[in-house]
Design brief:
By secondary structure, the chain is of the alpha/beta class. Helices cover 35% and strands 21% of the residues. The strands form 4 sheets. A 5-stranded parallel sheet has the order 2-1-3-4-5, sandwiched between helices. The protein has a 4-stranded mixed sheet with strand order 6-7-8-9, with helices on both faces. Helix 2 links the parallel strand 3 and strand 4. The structure holds iron/sulfur cluster (SF4).
Length: 390
């Protein structure tokens, strides 16, 4: 049969879709070509916000339009949370919900250079605004030795950068009694001669210990690039959100990174407009984030998720208009931070990993500290590291 998988949402979903496609191909099925109508279409959904749900539904409509005779299967986080809502859509033939108590291994390749390695799944934190623990279940992981084998295999097959993905990867080890720092250390010490990089996905600030930061600073292969979810710059809101840290701890983490890795890229997730984010809390948030020495903000606008604890809390609601205004304000601050980061780090020597895509005669690559550079396309440079003065 010919199969098409349509993936929405995070890197983890992409890694899982890729693993699923490999499995189907190994059983004798074939990936549908670009304009070919598939026999089976699988839509792997996301449910992180209302907008994500909307995009899932649009993708399902489009999949049916483009593949009128296909069997249409829906899976992923939205399917797990709202199976009936999806099953009721006329376009859908079947909803498949993954079992949450097993760890499904996934590795995906993005072009030739990068490989997303799923090291963990699920989350035990139950932040009051978040539906992910209900969709993906409790924190679980495979063993370090298994992941080392997967990473070595990916590098042997040509990947030059391994990106560690998961829902709450700093919580690695719940299933195996191991821990995240040992995983990093073993990945860094893989006996591989050819050059490669490890990039760490998002790690909760309470789990990003100084020891982990120090390990990154002395590592041979781990990129000086941190992605840390802050979510709010107001301690009152962090409490409402049931986050596991306060702004003082977050500032200590950032200060430690800046002390041992002054050139590191620090990306920070920020949510705006959650219930209880009063004008006063918002002003605290803006003041805090403006002063924080980070490189870029990833801004998310809060949307109410069915079944989450925040909906039953007696809190003032931020209007949609105000949520949008706050989002715009943080986007502006983010742009200033990014420009300041570039101004500080350009020019300086760096190593770029060039990617395959030929974009109107240009090719792109990222430095270890996540600065995107371009140069005229040169096929011989694809998937290689070169030293440059940025
Ligand atoms: S840490 Fe909080 S926001 Fe992140 S997945 Fe877990 S519950 Fe959701």
């Amino acid at each position: 049969m010919t199969i098409r998988i349509i993936t929405l949402g995070c890197k983890l979903n992409f890694a899982e879709s890729s693993a699923l496609m490999n499995e189907l191909v190994s059983r004798g099925h074939r990936r549908a070509k670009k304009d070919e109508e598939a026999d089976v279409v699988i839509v792997n959904t996301c449910t992180v916000t209302d907008t994500a749900d909307q995009k899932d539904r649009q993708a399902i409509h489009r999949a049916r339009r483009e593949n009128p005779n296909a069997k249409l299967i829906v899976t992923g986080c939205y399917a797990r949370l709202k199976p009936k809502e999806i099953a009721d859509m006329v376009e859908v033939n079947k909803v498949i919900i993954k079992r949450e108590d097993i760890f499904q291994q996934a590795v995906s390749r993005d072009d030739r250079t990068r490989c997303f390695l799923k090291v963990q799944d699920g989350c035990n934190y139950f932040c009051t605004y978040c539906a992910i623990p209900y969709a993906r279940g409790r924190s679980r992981n495979p063993s370090i030795s298994f992941l080392i084998e997967e990473a070595e295999k990916a590098i042997k097959e040509g990947a030059k950068e391994i990106v560690l993905t998961g829902v709450n990867i700093g919580d690695f080890g719940r299933s195996t009694g191991e821990n995240f720092i040992d995983l990093l250390s073993e990945l860094d010490n893989m006996p591989i001669e050819s050059p490669f990089r490890i990039r760490i996905g998002s790690v909760e600030p309470n789990l990003l210990s100084d020891d982990i930061i120090d390990l990154v600073a002395r590592s041979k292969h781990i990129a000086p690039h941190f992605h840390i979810p802050l979510q709010s710059g107001s301690d009152r809101v962090l409490k409402i959100m049931n986050r596991h840290y306060d702004t003082a701890l977050f500032s200590e983490r950032v200060a430690h990174i800046r002390q041992v890795l002054p050139d590191a890229f620090i990306g920070v997730d920020c949510m705006v407009g959650v219930r209880g984010e009063t004008q006063e809390c918002w002003e605290e948030y803006v003041k805090y984030i403006t002063a924080l020495s980070v490189s870029q903000l990833h801004v998310f606008t809060y949307s109410e998720r069915a079944g989450t604890r925040m909906l039953s809390m007696d809190l003032p609601i931020v209007s949609m208009k105000e949520r949008k205004e706050r989002s715009k304000a943080l986007h502006r601050i983010s742009e200033q931070k990014l420009q300041a980061f570039y101004a500080e780090h350009l020019p300086s020597p760096a190593t770029v990993l060039w990617e395959a895509k030929n974009d109107h005669g240009l090719m792109y690559g990222f430095t270890e500290n996540y600065i995107r550079l371009s140069r005229p396309y040169d096929k011989t440079l694809v998937n290689t590291f070169t030293s440059v003065m940025q």
